[in-house]
Amino acid sequence: MTDHQDMALDWMSDGADAPPPPVDLRPEIPHPARMYDYYLGGKDNFPADREAAEKVLGLSPLVRISALANRAFLQRAVRHLAEQGVRQFLDIGTGIPTAGNTHEVAQRVHPDARVAYLDNDPIVLVHSRALLAGTGHGGVTVLQADLRDPKAILSDPQVRSVLDLDRPVALLLFAILHFIDDADDPYGIVRTLVDALPSGSYLAMSHGTADFSTPDQAAKGPAVYRNATAQLTMRSREQVLRFFDGLELQEPGLVTAPLWRPDQPAQPTDGEVAIWAGVGRKP
Ligand SMILES: C[S@@+](CC[C@H](N)C(=O)[O-])C[C@H]1O[C@@H](n2cnc3c(N)ncnc32)[C@H](O)[C@@H]1O
């Protein structure tokens, strides 16, 4: 990627007529989406992102393992949900596209699966739109939205044009809720979204934790993100479990990401990967 701030968008297939305005990518400020891209081995990041990501990686090599494990969990969970018959996905905090995105996994099971991708970071939109350009993904849309305003998400015409909220939807909140401060009421946000979905819908989510960290690591990780565009709030297993209140937690329950229905034999460190992962069904 070139280091210039204003990038003309490569325009494409989400139904909009006019090209959107240029995007300020703010390359001098670390962005969680681009730091995550760096952990995953991607190239869509700037020096400020790499510098901050390296500081986090210096605290624990498990960070990169956790990012990869989270991504693999996303793919297994989406495949599982599609196999349960889910054909609609509301993926908030999409991240910069990488191999095995939600629509690719879901559409392998149901070619007509529909996906609304939402992220508040403009760089994610630039890349997601470029990925979808000209590929004829009629049932997939990408828009800029903030999880902290769930009512706006639910009433957004672009979301409503792709998803029928009277039929089951899988709400995907992978590695995003740890960017929502307690002050922004993350539990209330999830409740508002889940309440708007019908019975038979699902919540699939993952969340960073300091449950396996030393006190030093637990303090320094969030400190690095203090200069980034979003702050980090790690939560314990018990705190993450609360997001599933009122839902039927699916087997095997809330576990570290590699242990959620693994398709490979578990490794010795899998139980200490710093990401809690679970899927709940709305009764
Ligand atoms: C660590 S990435 C996770 C990407 C993907 N969900 C995954 O698990 O592979 C977190 C994403 O959440 C987005 N994000 C953070 N806070 C957000 C908010 N308040 N609203 C929408 N997106 C947000 C970031 O821009 C970033 O793309």
Automatic annotation (TrEMBL):
It comes from the Bacteria. Keywords: Methyltransferase, Transferase. SUPFAM superfamilies: S-adenosyl-L-methionine-dependent methyltransferases. Residues 1-23 are annotated as: Disordered. InterPro entries: SAM-dependent_MTases_sf, SAM_dep_MeTrfase_SAV2177_type. This is SAM-dependent methyltransferase. Pfam families: Methyltransf_19. GO terms for molecular function: methyltransferase activity. GO terms for biological process: methylation.
